Amino acid sequence: MALIPFPGRADNLRQQIACASYSPQNWDRVAVAIDDLFPGVTTRIQRVSLLAAPDAAALPSDRPDPDAWLAQHVVGLPAGAVFDIRAPAGGASSPETRITGLLLHRCDTSCWVLAVARQADADVPSRAPVSALIHRHAEALQRAFLISHCLGTECAPDRAAIEESWDSLPFGVALLSRRRTILAANSAAEDLLSTRRFFLPPRDHSTVRPATAKDRRRLFRAVDRIILGECDGDDLLIEGLRHGEPMPVSLLAVGGDTCASLPPAPASNRRDSLIAVIGRPDQDAQTDG
């Protein structure tokens, strides 16, 4: 059995997991990277309600609901569990389906899963290589999900876990407080933030401050808008001292979908932190990572 027949594509999966850890929108790329490894499968990252997970006997065999079958089989699993289930066929138009997946995170009323589905009788890889791939990346996938979706909640991982996920990225990623102090940062961000052409030497608990007054005003204004909930992100070009190529910075609101078991935040609630993506050459980090 060849677990990863295309090493370059496996490298792409690791890169996409790291990108997904700072932006919920990037999880679509994780799904695409897995589909590229195993032609014939369909990967989804989905939320499953646990409030009314039906008994197996109550599920209709002629027109099975895939989401109901998934809920019934994962309701008792802990976060981090790798599972394999078989949904019965519902006629010629709905053949028997096999789902191998990972329970990324669970709350009191719902859970998030990464599910790789394939037709049981189709000419696609067996469950063994798919399961092995998920086992291999399970810890990184779980950690990335908690960072991308749970920052700002009691489920958020610690600084060491955040920086471990981001350190493999070739551009800077930093978690900033509302006062622009650095709460976590990868190695690339630390290097870029010490570049005196663009940023003043960190002080006041590592506060991020662009080198020119013009850049400071633009950055501070963008940070305030995100913290106040007026927008979910902004793209800037830090011009710095002396003429030359500017430094791209994308600011992103944290979190994508907080735990259902936590009380919803009031509409006027201020955010406590945001993410800065620094030095990425393209300007699409906010929308597609």
Structure explained in plain terms:
- The chain is an alpha+beta fold.
- It folds into two domains: about 5-150, Beta-Lactamase; about 160-289, Beta-Lactamase (2-Layer Sandwich), CATH 3.30.450.
- It is built from eight helices and nine strands.
- β5 (about 170-175) and β6 form a beta hairpin.
- α1 (about 5-20) runs antiparallel to α2 (about 25-35) and α1 (about 5-20) packs parallel to α4 (about 125-150).
- The chain is elongated.
- The model is unreliable at about 260-270 and about 285-289 (pLDDT under 50).
Structure summarized in a few sentences:
It contains 8 helices and 9 strands. Helices cover 32% and strands 22% of the residues.
Task: Estimate percent helicity.
Answer: 25-40%
CATH architecture of the largest domain: 2-Layer Sandwich
The tally of strands reads 9
Task: Indicate the structural class.
Answer: alpha+beta
SSE arrangement:
Elements: H1 7-20, H2 27-37, E1 42-49, H3 66-74, E2 82-87, E3 97-106, E4 110-119, H4 127-150, H5 159-166, E5 172-177, E6 182-185, H6 187-193, H7 213-227, E7 233-238, E8 247-253, E9 273-278, H8 285-288
Helix pairs in contact: 1-2, 1-4
Write a concise keyword list for the protein shown above.
289 residues; alpha+beta; Beta-Lactamase; 2 domains; five-stranded antiparallel sheet; four-stranded antiparallel sheet; 8 helices; 9 strands; elongated; disordered C terminus
